[in-house]
Amino acid sequence: MSDRIRFENVSKFYGEVLGVNRVDLSLGPGITALVGPNGSGKSTLMNLMTGLLRPTRGRVEVLGISPRDPADLLPRVGYCTQYDAFPRGVKGRQLLLSTLRFHGIRGEEARQSADRVLDRVQLAYAARRKVAGYSKGMRQRIKLASALVHEPRILVLDEPLNGLDPMARAELIGLFQELATEGRHVIVSSHILHEVDMIADRVVLLNQGYVVARGDIPEVREEMTEHPLQILVRSPEAPDLAGIFFRHEHVVQVELLDDRKGLIVKTRRPESLYLLLNRLVVEEDLPVESVAPADEDVLAVYEYLIGPEGEVV
Ligand code: ADP
Ligand code: MG
After folding, report:
1. Four-residue CA torsion sign, 117, 123, 126, 130
2. How far is the CA of 44 from the centre of ligand 1 (A)?
3. To test the ligand 1 pocket, which listed residue (17, 21, 187, 212) has its Cβ within 8 A of the most ligand atoms?
4. For ligand 1, atom 19, which residue shows the shortest CA distance?
5. Which residues of the chain fall short of a pLDDT of 70?
């Protein structure tokens, strides 16, 4: 059986509206990041590879199976959509048991699978609580658990890091890496390249329905190092943080915001900055409210990857 997810000249139109156009991809196991601004076609690609959508043109094949054969594909795929919708009043463990029932797994086997995956996403303590009362990070984890509980080979996760604080993000990222190490496909989407570039084995950059760049992360990262990236850090202790950042050689500039509760940090190695921030939050208990690329969207990144006009390659 093939271990690849293949797109051959795939286009998807919603009536007149372009979803994705002429996509050719062949993805192996490991972490693949689909990155692009809103409307660039990330969710469309995910819906195509999970069989929720049929291509208008071209061919999709997942592990050698056509998504037209849902009975063959469904056991092998777990999909977290970008939406945060849960059945009303559902509790964490109950959600997993109903997912398992959908896959035809019941009884003791289902209970064991549910408990195993709850441990894995560190939600055992909240298993009997209503999902509606979960924090954003817990909701992302129960969604992941629900995609993972039937042990699929392919996990498709639409914006799984969206809205998470640095700690919750680091935890989830650790899990993605474990899952990839087990030989699974982990496909994650994001509109922020720097959220995923440090963890992905390969990245596919999308813009307006086209694949505009793709490659192994080391190549993309190399290009990055020549272009310092700006990151906005919000913290009541911004002046102290500024002093700490300055001592790191990858930081090329630190600018304190007028309200003294935020910093714009220019760094050549965003991943080192994120690691440093995680350490400061965890070990030194420094209050950090938010961390985000200062560029509004990923277009700034495209500019230096593909040229100022964003022309299609
Ligand atoms: P992303 O996930 O990157 O934000 P999408 O795949 O959701 O991008 O959207 C790609 C394009 O397809 C956008 O122009 C969007 O408006 C359009 N689109 C997505 N879903 C639909 C739909 N169900 N009906 C019509 N247009 C859609
Ligand atoms: Mg989307």
Report:
1. negative
2. 6
3. 17
4. 19
5. 216-227, 293-313
Average pLDDT for the chain: 86
* 250 vs 225: CA distance, rounded Å: 9
Protein residue whose Cα sits closest to atom 22 of ligand 1: 14
> One-letter amino acid identity for 145?
A
Catalytic: which of 159, 219, 223, 311? 159
In order of 35, 142, 205, 212, the CA distances from 20 in angstroms are 13, 30, 12, 11
By CB atoms closer than 10 A (0-12, 13-18, 19+), residue 90 is middle
d(CA 211, CA 2): 23
**C-alpha dihedral, 272 to 273 to 276 to 281, nearest 10°:** -140
Q: How far apart are CA 226 and CA 224, in angstroms?
A: 5
Report pLDDT digits (tens) over 118-170. 999 999 999 999 999 999 889 999 999 999 999 999 999 999 998 888 778 88
159 catalytic? Reply is yes
Rg (CA), the chain: 20
Ligand 1 atom nearest to CA at 15: 25
Reported as half-sphere exposure (CB side, CA atoms, 13 A), residue 162 has a value of 18
Concatenated DSSP letters for 63-87?
Answer: TTB-TT-HHHHGGGEEEE-S-----
Residue 192 DSSP class: -
Please provide the size of the chain in residues.
Answer: 313
d(CA 311, CA 119): 46
